[in-house]
Every structure is written in structure tokens, then in C-alpha cells.
Write a structure and sequence with these properties.
Blueprint: H1 3-10, E1 15-17, E2 24-26, H2 27-32, H3 48-55, E3 62-63, H4 82-93, E4 99-106, E5 109-116, H5 127-143, E6 147-153, H6 161-181, E7 185-194, H7 195-198, E8 207-210, E9 216-217, H8 221-228, H9 239-244, E10 250-251, H10 254-268, H11 270-278, H12 319-326, H13 334-341, E11 342-347, E12 360-367, E13 370-377, H14 383-388, H15 396-412, E14 416-422, H16 429-433, H17 436-448, E15 454-463, H18 464-468, E16 475-479, E17 483-485, H19 489-497, H20 503-510, H21 514-519, E18 525-527, H22 538-556, H23 561-573
Parallel strand pairs: 5-6, 6-7, 7-8, 7-9, 8-10, 13-14, 14-15, 15-16, 15-17, 16-18
Antiparallel strand pairs: 1-2, 3-4, 4-5, 11-12, 12-13
Helix pairs in contact: 5-6, 10-11, 13-22, 15-17, 19-20
């Protein structure tokens, strides 16, 4: 046995006390587990260099040249000179500043990464950090590759006074330029992230991830408690608190971060944007200058029988029975369709303001290889699920979440697909206090101007403005047992007949079934359901929906942003005009109403 081996055997085991639960953990196991406690899951701090080593492919990391910046601009001294604090921090961390920036890859996908070092003066944001973050953003802009920001900070650096404050603007501007150029940005929040960093670049990214248990906020809990003289609730400002309040997209354990980032980069990174460009759309919704050819009927790329376009091809039905089928508990939900149709789907959460409405779900994934942003109402199949999802009735936070995802799609040049299935927007007191009407109106305006293809499918109930808020699209389809109306039959009966029991009569009068919707041009086509209804064969229904949506997206390829917006606005502009009420001799509607004409 070698002397080194003998020395290793003689060495006393070293133990680490978990800050979360106090359990003693063997140091080698603790490091092997990336400083995550096996007992309670507490995530210990990593250095900036450890972060980069954990996430980037081995051998791919290339440091970005560190710029020269102003040092000690105020000649600041507290208990010791600021220059001495800098010297000590550099000696302790081996870094010139509180952030390490590098280019590299994750699973082969290129990116620029900036990882903050909390042990360097608390990861504070000063001129050196602000300049390095800005340089990293400029490198991402120049290379047109995603930017990953890994935050760990106590806030702006006090020793640099107002110059530190200005770094918040400087870094925020850098992210704004990436937004304008259609470059993906991802933020990973680690513990802690506070003050000027939380109030600037760390929370401006397209997607915000966090490790479990991290803390993030503008003011720290001690400052808050001293100011308001109240005890804060348990879990305040933690990752889980942030997720439940709609402020971040997801919480992922350290062991899953690399795979999660790789999946997001594969779906939303340069390769996906190049695919969008090849389909005729630019990097952030402004197109690539392609001129749309004159268009007549939509293409017939969909498999035969996938889409019915003539009302006469649909059988007459009992509207009230159709309402019951549209509401069937076993009918496929948005997340059911996701499981059947999308690859690499990653659900994103929250409106970045106040809440994460469970009645609307959304995220990014691939449909038949094409990256898309998918948004839909979500009900459920059991009473428990329905209650948890608020019966598919969205709050203002749900519509703001949908709007946020649509803006992400426009930035990256990705199509938007929506699945509509709701009795209507949630009518509660809180929803009104939070601006339900405004949230819906904002979505109508936003969708009418999105410079990317939008395809909507009414999969179940299309109830009032709550449904329409996801329904302003280039192509609007409905399943054959779906309904779409200005109000529910029960609501209509109660108001006009003054008798909720007259719902069946109201359903007939509202002409809300797919055949009537097609006849009036409300939908551009009807997707036939399997025998007995969508609930009887979810897989086959999903297959038909997927084929119809893929064909519609293919039909919209080659349209630049201006052409898409012009045609979409023309489609809705013509509703209610006299020509829209006059079917042609073959029973179909005039082409202008279906928004398939060139002019």
C-alpha cells in the first residue's frame, strides 16, 4: 500500500452539519451530492466556479475577458477601507469580482453564463459586477445564443453609493436589448437573491427557475419585520412561496437543473429559432421579410377526415346533448393533449405579478418536431381536480400568465397554440378587484397583434369572454362536440327566460354547436371526434387534434408578421357584416369571413 493510501485510511472522517436540519453528513458524500443534504434536501451554497462546472459541459467553458472598471470611486471606509475588503474577497475566492462569466455549452447547446459568487462581498452588485453582467449580455447578443444568469446576492454594493445603483439600470438595459433581438434569457435564483439584483436582471429573464428553499425578495425579512413590526409567515420569500404567488416559473432540485436547462435550450435556443426562421418567421415576431402569396382556401395538408369545412358534412345534433358531451368529465384536458402530442414539454408558471392561476396552464414544447408555446384551460377528471383547477375558470392572473407566454412566443418567433375549455372567466369578488375585465381585454388586444402564427382549438366548452381571451387566432377550430357561446345556456335561460330550467331551450336558441359555429364562420373547421365522443378515445382524439394543428401551422408557414396580423384582424373585422350572413350555394361561408382571402 502506498504512503498516500495509508494516509487516506488514517485520516479521520470529516463531517458537515446540515444548516437545514442539523444532521451530520460525511463531507465526501455531501460534496458528491453537490452539497444537498440527503436527509432534508437543504441546498448548500456553491461557489460561482462550482456552478459553472456543474452546469456546463466538461471542457466547454471559456472565460469572458474581464473589463476594467472604476474601483473604490468614493474612497469608502467603514470599519476598514473598501480597497482592503476587495483585496480580502479576491484572496478568499480567487475571483477578481463577485461574478464569473463564460461561454460554454449544456448538452451541446451553446450559451453565455454568468454565475454570481456570494462569498465575494455577499455577491453585491457594484460597477465590476454590472460591467461583467453587461458584457456577458453583449456577448450573447453578438453570438445570438441564450444568456443564463445565476443569481446569489445580498443587493447593491453600499461602498459604491449611487454608482452601484446605476448598475441596476445598466444591466436591465442589456436584457432589454436581448429582448429586442429575440435572444432567450434564463435566470436561476439561488440562495439568497435580494435587493438590487432581485430588482433588476435576476427577475427580467424570459424564464425564471429556482432551487428549492432559496430566498428572493427586494428587502430582507429582518428589514421587513423591523419596518412593519409584524412577524412574517413561515416560508415567506422562499422558492415555494414565489412559485405559489406566480413570481417564478419553476422550482427544480440541483440534481435536475442541468437536464432542465438542456431541455429548455433545445426547445427555445438557437436551433429552435433557426427552425422558426425556416418556417418563415423571424427571431422575435417581426418576420424575415417573406411576402405572403395570395391565398384562397386553406391547404389540404391535413390527413383526410381531420378537418370538416362544410356545415353540410356535419350531422344535425341536439344542442343540449352536445353541451353535456362538451362538459363530460372524461373529456381530454389540455394536459392530456400535452401528454399525447408534445415532446420536451416544460410547464411554465405565474403571471410575474401576484399568482399562478391553476385554471390556465402553459409552457413550451415540440409538436411534430416544431417548437411551440402551448396555452390552455385546464379542468380535470375528478371533483378534487375540478375544485383545484377552479373548474377551468381563470382569474386575471391566469390571463396575465397566458399573455406573458404569448409575448415570449412573439419574442422567440414561435407559434402559439391554445386549447379552449372553460365555462367562462371566474366571476368572484377577488377577480373583479384584480381587474378581470381588463385582463381579458388586454389579451384580445395582444393576440390581435401577435406577429407569429396562432391556432386555437375549442376542445370542450367555449364560454364567453373567458374563452375568447385565448381565441383570437389565425385558425380557429372546434371539436365536433364542442360548444362556443356568448353565455352558458343556464345563464341565458336565467336572464332571458327568467327560468334556469329553460337551459335546454336556451342552448337551442344560442346555436352554439359546431355545425352552427362553422355555418356562421366562427370556426374555420371542425375536427371530428371518435364514435361516442372524445372521452371514449382520448388518444385518437389527440391524434386528430395534433394533425389539424400541425396542418394549420404548415399552412401559415411563409407568412411574415405583418401579413399574419393583417389577415387575423381582417378575419375578426368582418364578423356581423352582411356578407358574413349569406352562405354560398354549396352551403359554405364566403372566403373573406374565414380570413383566407388575400385581400
Amino acid at each position: 500500500m502506498t504512503a498516500a493510501a495509508e494516509s487516506e485510511l488514517e485520516r479521520e472522517p470529516e463531517w458537515v452539519c446540515c444548516p437545514g436540519c442539523g444532521t451530520l453528513v460525511f463531507d465526501k458524500r455531501y460534496e458528491r451530492d453537490r452539497r444537498v443534504c440527503w436527509q432534508c434536501g437543504h441546498h448548500g451554497r456553491l461557489t460561482a466556479l462550482q456552478r459553472l462546472a456543474q452546469l456546463l459541459d466538461p471542457g466547454s467553458s471559456v472565460p469572458i475577458d474581464a473589463p476594467s472598471t472604476i474601483e473604490d470611486p468614493l474612497r469608502f471606509t467603514d470599519r476598514q477601507p473598501y480597497r482592503e475588503r476587495l483585496r480580502q474577497a479576491r484572496a478568499a475566492t480567487g475571483l477578481p469580482e463577485a461574478v464569473a462569466c463564460a461561454t460554454g455549452t449544456i448538452h451541446g447547446h451553446p450559451l453565455v453564463a454568468a454565475a454570481m459568487e456570494f462569498e465575494f462581498l455577499g455577491g453585491s452588485l457594484g460597477s465590476g459586477v454590472g460591467e461583467r453582467i453587461t458584457r456577458a449580455a453583449e456577448e450573447a447578443l453578438h453570438s445570438h445564443v441564450p444568456l443564463l444568469l445565476i443569481a446569489a446576492s445580498g443587493g447593491a454594493r453600499m461602498q459604491e453609493g449611487a454608482l452601484a445603483l446605476m448598475q441596476m439600470v445598466k444591466t436591465s438595459q442589456a436584457l432589454a436589448e436581448l429582448d429586442e433581438a429575440g435572444v432567450l434569457t434564463i435566470s436561476l435564483l439561488t440562495d439568497p437573491t435580494y435587493g438590487g439584483v432581485a430588482a433588476s436582471y435576476a427577475t427580467l429573464a424570459d424564464i425564471i427557475l429556482a432551487e428549492p428553499g432559496i430566498r428572493m425578495g427586494f428587502a430582507g425579512p429582518r428589514v421587513i419585520e423591523q419596518t412593519i413590526r409584524q412577524r412574517l409567515p413561515d416560508g415567506f420569500q422562499t422558492a415555494e412561496f414565489l412559485l405559489s404567488h406566480g413570481l417564478i416559473d419553476d422550482v427544480q432540485p440541483r440534481s435536475a437543473l442541468r437536464a432542465t436547462l438542456a431541455r429548455l435550450l433545445a426547445t427555445l435556443g438557437p436551433a429552435s429559432q433557426a427552425l422558426a426562421d425556416s418556417h418563415g418567421h423571424g427571431s422575435h415576431g417581426h418576420g424575415v421579410g417573406l411576402v405572403a402569396a395570395p391565398r384562397g382556401e386553406p391547404s389540404s395538408d391535413a390527413p383526410p377526415g381531420t378537418i370538416i369545412r362544410r356545415p353540410a358534412e356535419l350531422p344535425k345534433c341536439d344542442p343540449w346533448q352536445t353541451v353535456q358531451l362538451a362538459r363530460h368529465l372524461d373529456r381530454p384536458t389540455t394536459l392530456d393533449y400535452v401528454s399525447y402530442l408534445l415532446e420536451d414539454f416544460h410547464q411554465l408558471h405565474g403571471d410575474r405579478m401576484s399568482a399562478d392561476c391553476p385554471a390556465i396552464v402553459g409552457g413550451v414544447g415540440r409538436l411534430a418536431g416544431r417548437p411551440i408555446v402551448l396555452i390552455g384551460h385546464q379542468k380535470g377528471h375528478t371533483t378534487t381536480e375540478l375544485v383545484a383547477r377552479n373548474f377551468g375558470m381563470a382569474t386575471p392572473a391566469g390571463y396575465r400568465k397566458a399573455a406573458r407566454l404569448m409575448r415570449l412566443a412573439a419574442k422567440l418567433g414561435l407559434p402559439v397554440v391554445t386549447f379552449i375549455d372553460t365555462p367562462g372567466a371566474y366571476p368572484g369578488v377577488e377577480a373583479e378587484e384584480q381587474g378581470q375585465s381588463i385582463a381579458i381585454a388586454e389579451n384580445l388586444r395582444l393576440m390581435s397583434g401577435l406577429g407569429v402564427p396562432v391556432v386555437a382549438v375549442v376542445t370542450g366548452e367555449g364560454g364567453s369572454g373567458g374563452a375568447l381571451a385565448l381565441g383570437v387566432a389565425d385558425r380557429v377550430y372546434a371539436l365536433s362536440n364542442a360548444v362556443y357561446s356568448v353565455i352558458s345556456p343556464e345563464g341565458c335561460a336565467a336572464i332571458l327566460w327568467r327560468d334556469a330550467g329553460a337551459a335546454e331551450k336556451a342552448a337551442s336558441a344560442l346555436r352554439l354547436d359546431a355545425r352552427e359555429l362553422l355555418r356562421h364562420g366562427i370556426v374555420d373547421g371542425v375536427i371530428p371526434e371518435p364514435e361516442g365522443g372524445a372521452h371514449g378515445d382520448r388518444a385518437r382524439t389527440a391524434e386528430l387534434v395534433g394533425a389539424a394543428v400541425a396542418a394549420a401551422l404548415g399552412d401559415l408557414d411563409g407568412q411574415d408578421a405583418a401579413s399574419l396580423v393583417r389577415a387575423r384582424r381582417r378575419r375578426f373585422r368582418r364578423f356581423g357584416t352582411v356578407p358574413s350572413l349569406v352562405p354560398r350555394h354549396d352551403g359554405t361561408l364566403p372566403i373573406p369571413l374565414q380570413a383566407h382571402a388575400a385581400s
